[in-house]
């Protein structure tokens, strides 16, 4: 099929780029309203399962997502037709958000349980365990990290029975849960884009694409396999400094796979 920009892909590119530009120039922070949050957060709204797909964290984030949409979206839209392609894009993106939200719900409930267990028996050793198992990653995002670290290693151990120290440790534990439940967000079209990549790998497995880094040709089925494998590896590594939502990538691929199989789309190449 001859490559050309298709109507839905063109519209999605314009919407994503326009929203990114507006987010950069408007005085209000669109992420506060539109990013996907933990479903028990006081800031969560159901529409965020859709709106998060049209926000991006930075220029590189929106550039690479839109690059993927620009190169792979038109061919898939020609195969599916505009309406079905838009349905595919939205389901893959929403599905990625739902999967991410479900796992996020489980993880934050673990934090809540750990907080309650600590409150039942607050002491320096238990606080250290709670800090490294649940609190460190969240507190690193705040200005309180250094103060909490000093409190944990100096102030609390020196006076473990001091009521003020016990109360401070409980307050810190509660703050960890508040940060975890209210300030964990996800943005980006990556889930939908990875759904498109999965569909392309299933429908055109032997189509060669030119990678950017390194600039070598590779069959798309192998490229998707590498992307999926890297996402799984990154999830297992659980690197606190990694802000990429690898689970959403896998979620998009999963929903893309299911849709292609459910619609019984034929293999083209």
TrEMBL record:
Name listed for the protein in its UniProt record: Rhomboid family intramembrane serine protease
UniProt keyword Protease present: yes
Pfam families: Rhomboid
GO molecular function, one term: serine-type endopeptidase activity
Taxonomic lineage of the native organism: Bacteria, Pseudomonadati, Bacteroidota, Cytophagia, Cytophagales
Keyword Transmembrane: yes
Membrane disposition: Multi-pass membrane protein
Transmembrane segments: 12-30, 50-73, 85-103, 183-204, 216-233, 245-263
EC number: 3.4.21.-
Organism whose genome encodes this protein: Rapidithrix thailandica
PANTHER family: PRESENILIN-ASSOCIATED RHOMBOID-LIKE PROTEIN, MITOCHONDRIAL, RHOMBOID PROTEASE
GO cellular component, one term: membrane
UniProt xrefs under InterPro entries: Peptidase_S54_rhomboid_dom, Rhomboid-like_sf, Rhomboid_protease_S54
Location(s), subcellular: Membrane
SUPFAM superfamilies, A to Z: Rhomboid-like
Top-level taxon: Bacteria
GO aspect biological process, one term: proteolysis
Keywords associated with the record: Hydrolase, Membrane, Protease, Transmembrane, Transmembrane helix
Record-linked Gene3D superfamilies: Rhomboid-like (1.20.1540.10)
Domain called Peptidase S54 rhomboid: residue spans: 46-103, 172-260
Coiled coil ranges: none
């Amino acid at each position: 099929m001859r490559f050309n920009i298709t109507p839905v892909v063109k519209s999605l590119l314009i919407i994503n780029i326009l929203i990114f530009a507006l987010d950069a120039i408007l005085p209000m922070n669109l992420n506060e309203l539109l990013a996907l949050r933990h479903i028990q957060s006081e800031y969560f709204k159901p529409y965020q399962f859709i709106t998060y797909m049209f926000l991006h964290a930075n220029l590189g984030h929106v550039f690479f997502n839109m690059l993927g949409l620009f190169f792979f979206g038109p061919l898939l839209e020609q195969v599916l037709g505009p309406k079905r392609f838009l349905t595919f894009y939205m389901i893959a993106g929403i599905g990625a958000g739902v999967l991410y939200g479900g796992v996020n719900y489980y993880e934050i409930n673990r934090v809540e349980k750990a907080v309650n267990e600590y409150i039942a028996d607050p002491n320096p050793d238990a606080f250290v365990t709670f800090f490294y198992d649940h609190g460190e990653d969240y507190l690193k995002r705040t200005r309180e990290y250094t103060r909490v670290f000093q409190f944990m290693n100096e102030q609390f151990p020196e006076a473990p029975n001091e009521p003020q120290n016990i109360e401070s440790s409980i307050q810190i534990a509660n703050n960890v849960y508040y940060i975890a439940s209210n300030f964990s967000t996800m943005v980006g079209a990556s889930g939908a884009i990875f759904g498109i990549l999965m569909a392309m790998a299933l429908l055109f497995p032997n189509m060669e694409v030119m990678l950017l880094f390194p600039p070598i040709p590779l069959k798309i089925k192998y490229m998707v396999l590498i992307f999926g494998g890297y996402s799984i590896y990154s999830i297992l590594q659980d690197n606190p400094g990694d802000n990429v939502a690898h689970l959403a990538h896998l979620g998009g691929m999963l929903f893309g796979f299911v849709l292609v199989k459910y619609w019984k789309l034929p293999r083209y190449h």
